[in-house]
Amino acid sequence: MRTPLLCLRLSRLCRLIIHFAKGLFKVTFRFPRWSLAERVDYIQTWSKQLTLILGVSLRVQGIGPGKYPEQHMLLANHISWLDIFILDSVTVSRFVAKSELRSWPIIGRLCIGTGTLFIERERKRDTARVNDAIVAALSEGHCVTVFPEGTTGCGRQLLPFRSSLLQAAIDGNATIQPVYLRYTDEDGKHSDAATYIGDMSIAQSVWRILGTRSLHAEINFLAPFPTDHKNRRILTQFIEARICTAHHALNPQSNNA
């Protein structure tokens, strides 16, 4: 007999609150004293536990770059706030995220504590600052993840990729690895359960995920390559084409142009 939906949601919610509280404590009081390796291990373990609490099954396709690859940049399509933790379950990185995320309850504090780089996308001048921060992070041996669409999409179609933050990959001499993310149901068909778009609040999004009985998050790691392109727009087009190819291959019924 299946657990009633409300009971399932409430059970997961209680575990989720405890999990976030533990994470917030560790990030606030333990991270300052831990080494980078210890922080990376904790972020990965915490993220894996989060997916289990939410009932999300993880599928990994392709060859991942490892736990925390040095001077590496991941470029992924963007569907949900959950993308960050799904990726961290496999490859931990410093994310570039919209500045609004910083003010989110709990999640914002966790992102600050784990080294997220925030960008004010409505301010063009802020792009140069963030590019400099990414270059510095790459030069120090960090792994960085950028969502070149600039915002979350529905997952059924890809949004146009922006080239503004790709200059950092060139200047930082990073190894680039495109990643295609998608969320499916138990039959392997597209699922909207994790989608976070439009006027949806974070509370509404979490509540919907908590009530989803079968949700699979799929990470498709595409082949990495060195940054030998000198023009960020050409580089962006190349990455976009590769992720689009993966999107069409895995979603043959997609109407994405």
UniProtKB/TrEMBL annotation:
Q: Which domain of life is it from?
A: Bacteria
List the Pfam families hit by this protein, alphabetically: Acyltransferase
Q: Which residues form a coiled coil?
A: none
Q: Name one GO molecular function term.
A: acyltransferase activity
Q: Which InterPro entries match?
A: Plipid/glycerol_acylTrfase
From the Swiss-Prot or TrEMBL record, give the protein name: Lysophospholipid acyltransferase family protein
Keywords assigned by UniProt, alphabetized: Acyltransferase, Lipid biosynthesis, Lipid metabolism, Transferase
